[in-house]
Automatic annotation (TrEMBL):
It is found in: Cell membrane. Its EC number is 2.3.2.3. It is an enzyme of class 2 (transferase). This is Phosphatidylglycerol lysyltransferase. Keywords: Antibiotic resistance, Cell membrane, Lipid metabolism, Membrane, Transferase, Transmembrane, Transmembrane helix.
Length: 880
């Protein structure tokens, strides 16, 4: 078998297909293509739907019918926990009966809502089992065992449909491609049994204990059959209560075929392919399209959404974040790769983030509350309640309550993002809106069901209030566009549903209400647009009036004085002098004993160099700064980290990317004598003969010198922007802090200069900072300048002279280097037309430096390519 697989993979066409499938966009296109195919094939049968009639059929259902459908759907959802009882018994897991049922409910309903592929349920089971103390090897075996079991029940039902035990009308005859899909699903069961009883399966998946016993296989098959059979019965019950004259066995047959189509599509919950296939099947049974759509909506709501909402509540209560245990589990390498649909939905895609699932669940409850408010406003209330409310309340009050409900619904949808980020102010506003929404949705039509749900969500948020600790989060254009677009889409859906529904209901309403503005189609769109605008204006004002955050303030005169006093007794580094530029913010940690200088770039705080202060307190200072940044949903990055600090960064959860190497010239060994230094010696002698001179200027500088330096700098820039953050720029007050090296022509005019930057390490190291020269300066001017500066530094007693960093130097040279570092190596070798990487390295090599690496330390959750772009923007941004 393995030989056959290897031979198959050796074919070029197979390799091409596999390579294409590994591309994410190809995997996303597959369900879209399948969905488009189904819709295209059934487009003629779908165009006669009337949304107004569909909404009317929903509203006319009796409360007992709704209760019956809801109860059986919950029973069908509960049956899915039988999977967990099977693995609990077979793998002897020390989990209680109640916990097993809860874990099964959470995993299976999330899997139903987010995808039949099984990855969602697998990830949740792994986390929940680990939370109960089940060993990782047992979890792995159990989850891998369940993955192929889940669709065996559907395969068994597919055999029943093909054997005509469940007649499906003309669906398979009208759409022959569905017959091939059904045969493929049916053949899965014997293939599953063959693999389960093979020694290969026992070696790979049964912990080397041989083939799976028939008792366990039978129990798992029974669990899967129960799941799919009860789901089919739930679909059939909805059909029996809404439709008339359609037999239960035919409804089950349509469900099995539609479920197969949904499974093949790989979309969350089979959405799209399942629904269109079921609509086509019901219409071929003689069902009107509007009634068929009513059946689907009821089934989706009670079998998928209601159990999932209950799972959200159970998750919010069950999962209490424990970062140590999650970090331990994540460190073992366990994880599941979720599909693109789940990532778009906002699922915590990496396993380590499942610890935050409780808050994620609360955010989706808030999102659901907003949707419930809008749906309630779009659908007219029950007629007997409207007549009662008409006598109890005035119509203007009902109309105002309706409009406010729409506004609150839109705001709750947007605020659900703030809830997922644990923002305290978002929690407060959401609680107020939930209580207000419950009040106004009750007033507009005595909708106590919607009001009860909103109050329940508010209660869950209040009980979880201790989890909301963040003061704020960055508001990026991307977030505004995403959530603004989502609110617009939801508002358009509300407008379409409301406009279609009210027109059908209008002749059933009291005459007095019929002419009211609330049900006037001409004004409905205008009021909807105004509600959307008002919701965003209110949220914008609320955001703008937030308290001023310390994270945004630049250092003032007092901060600079504190920095000078701090550096008088602490060891600095090669980047310390740049803190006096005033463009970096200061975070004083460990009661002021450690200084962390940083600048903000979007949702990241980028620290320049290593923290300053006692080495023994740096790790605790980093943790303190991480907590400070986390209050605002920001991540901490260290730019140009030195090798001696890497163990500290590593223990605080950082990854590393080599930025390049710093050129450090040992001054004790620096000399112009010897054959290797002939080029430098020649340049110096030539400049001396031609009347050029070198001079060190010490602050304070007079206005005449500053004007000359400014003139040289402006000509050198030639209209280009100054760079910043890790590079100095022309700033008179900054230049007054350190000596400046000058090159003068025979007429004693400045043609080149370089400012110096002390390292604040007790006169051990000095660096070149700002370098400028006139374009017509003689060739070798900078060689002459550097040579004379190093001679001056040696005479002054400095030990090391820093020529600056050579970006991407010696990056990605190893065969086992990271992919990103190998890419950086290619940029270093072939990117000379963008930046002189190799030329800069060769130039600095002339001074025989020792090369010391510099790194970027970043959290694993951050995308390195995106971070690189943000750092380029940070360094290249225009300085004030």
């Amino acid at each position: 078998m393995l030989t056959a697989l290897k031979q198959l993979k050796s074919y070029r066409i197979v390799q091409l297909v596999l390579a294409a499938y590994q591309k994410r966009f190809v995997r996303m296109l597959i369900p879209l293509i399948i969905l488009a195919l189904v819709i295209w094939l059934g487009s003629r049968e779908l165009h006669n739907m009337n949304i107004g009639r569909m909404l009317f059929e929903l509203r006319r259902l009796s409360p007992w019918t709704i209760f019956e459908i809801a109860l059986f759907s919950l029973i069908a959802a509960a049956v899915m926990s039988s999977y967990d009882f099977v693995v609990r018994r077979h793998f002897r897991m020390p989990i209680s009966f109640g916990a097993t049922f809860r874990y099964g409910w959470i995993a299976n309903t999330f899997n139903n809502a987010c995808g039949f592929a099984g990855f969602t349920g697998a990830g949740l089971r792994a986390f929940l089992y680990k939370k109960s103390g089940v060993p990782l090897n047992v979890i792995t075996a159990a989850v891998i065992f369940l993955s192929p079991v889940a669709i065996t029940g559907l395969s068994l039902l597919a055999w029943a449909v093909l054997a005509r035990l469940f007649p499906e009308g003309q669906l398979l005859h009208t759409y022959p491609w569905l017959r091939w899909a059904m045969w493929g699903m049916a053949l899965y069961l014997p293939l599953f049994l063959l693999v389960q009883r093979s020694r290969l399966f026992g070696k790979w998946f049964n912990q080397g204990k041989g083939t799976m016993p028939w008792t366990t296989i039978s129990a798992s098959l029974a669990a899967s059959l129960l799941e799919w059979l009860f789901a089919a019965l739930a679909f059939g019950l909805v059909g029996l209560r809404v439709l008339h004259g359609v037999p239960l066995d035919a409804l089950i047959g349509v469900y099995v075929i539609a479920a197969t189509a949904g499974l093949i599509s790989m979309t969350p919950g089979g959405i799209g392919a399942f629904d269109v296939t079921a609509l086509l099947g019901l219409q071929l049974l003689g069902v009107h399209p509007d009634l068929a759509l009513t059946v689907l909506l009821l089934f989706r709501f009670f079998y998928f959404i209601v159990p999932w909402l209950i799972a959200l509540v159970l998750t919010a209560v069950e999962i209490i974040p424990n970062r140590e245990r999650i970090g331990e589990l994540a460190g073992t390498g366990w994880g599941y790769s979720l599909n693109q649909w789940q990532k778009i939905w906002g699922w915590p895609g990496q396993f380590r983030f499942l610890a935050d699932l409780g808050v994620w669940a609360l955010s989706k409850l808030v999102l659901a509350a907003g949707l419930v408010l809008l749906l309630s406003a779009a659908l007219p209330g029950l007629l007997y309640r409207l007549r009662f409310a008409e006598n109890l309340l005035s119509l203007p009050i009902m109309q105002l309550s309706h409009d406010i409900s729409v506004i609150i619904g839109i705001m709750l949808i947007v605020l659900s993002h703030g809830i997922s980020l644990r923002i305290r102010r978002a929690l407060r506003l959401t609680l107020v809106l939930l209580f207000a929404g419950a009040l106004f949705t009750f007033i507009k039509g005595l909708d106590f069901e919607e009001a009860s749900f909103l109050l329940f969500v508010a209660l869950m948020l209040y009980l979880s209030r201790s989890r909301f600790y963040r003061e704020g989060a960055p508001v990026s254009r991307t977030n505004v566009l995403i959530w603004g677009g989502l609110s617009v889409l939801v508002t358009v859906a509300y407008l379409l549903i409301g406009a279609g529904g009210y027109s059908y209901f209008l002749h059933h309403l009291p005459l007095r209400m019929r002419t009211n503005l609330l049900f006037d189609k001409e004004h409905f769109g205008i009021k909807t647009l105004l509600s959307l605008v008002f919701a965003w204006v209110f949220l914008t004002m609320y955001l703008m009036m937030r308290p001023q955050r310390d994270i945004e303030t630049l250092p003032d005169t007092d901060d600079m004085d504190r920095l000078r006093e701090f550096m008088s007794h602490e060891q600095g580094n090669l980047l310390t002098h740049m803190l006096f530029l005033g463009d970096k913010k200061f975070h004083w940690a460990q009661e002021g004993e450690v200084l962390i200088p940083y600048a903000r770039s979007r949702n990241k705080l980028v620290v320049l160099g290593d923290p300053l202060g006692p080495m023994r307190k740096v790790s605790a200072a980093i943790q303190e700064f991480q907590q400070y940044a986390d209050k605002y949903a920001l991540a901490v990055v260290f730019y140009q980290a030195s090798p001696s600090y890497l163990p500290i960064y590593h223990e605080n959860g950082y990854r590393f990317f080599k930025l390049g190497e710093e050129a450090l010239v040992p001054l004790e060994a620096f000399t112009l004598s010897g054959k290797s230094n002939t080029p430098l010696r020649t340049v110096r002698n030539r400049f001396d003969r031609e009347g050029y001179s070198f001079q060190m200027a010490y602050p304070p500088f007079d206005d005449t010198l500053m004007r000359q330096l400014k003139s040289v700098s402006d000509v050198w820039l030639n209209g280009r922007k100054e760079k910043g953050f890790s590079l100095g720029w022309f700033n008179e007050s900054y230049l007054q802090l350190a000596p400046v090296a000058l090159v003068l022509n025979p007429q004693q005019q400045v043609i080149a200069f370089a400012s110096l930057a002390p390292a604040y390490d007790h006169k051990q190291t000095v660096s070149i900072d700002l370098m400028r020269h006139l374009p017509d300066a003689p060739n070798g001017t900078m060689d002459f300048l550097f040579t004379r500066v190093m001679e001056w530094a040696k005479d002054e007693g400095y030990v090391m002279f820093n020529l600056g960093m050579a970006p991407l130097s010696s990056v990605g040279q190893s065969e086992r280097a990271l992919r990103e570092e190998k890419l950086a190596r290619l940029v270093f070798q072939y990117g000379s037309h963008w930046y002189g990487f190799q030329g800069l390295r060769r130039y600095k090599e002339k001074f025989s430096p020792a090369w010391e690496p510099r790194y970027l330390a970043y959290p694993a959750s951050i995308s390195l390519p995106i971070l690189t772009v943000e750092l380029m923007y940070l360094v290249s941004r225009k300085m004030d």
